[in-house]
């Protein structure tokens, strides 16, 4: 049987890793929006949604 501590630490690590990816994606969109313009940044974001398989979107839908 798996201990509760092992399960909790695994779930916490996975959640934090996903959160880091969301922050990274937001930072890239923000950097492109500030340095170029907002249209290419948001168009790139829309293309990512359109051409990515559904299982790769994860928490990205919440960060847009």
From TrEMBL:
Q: Domain of life here?
A: Bacteria
Protein name, entry field: GDT1 family protein
Protein's organism: Mesorhizobium escarrei
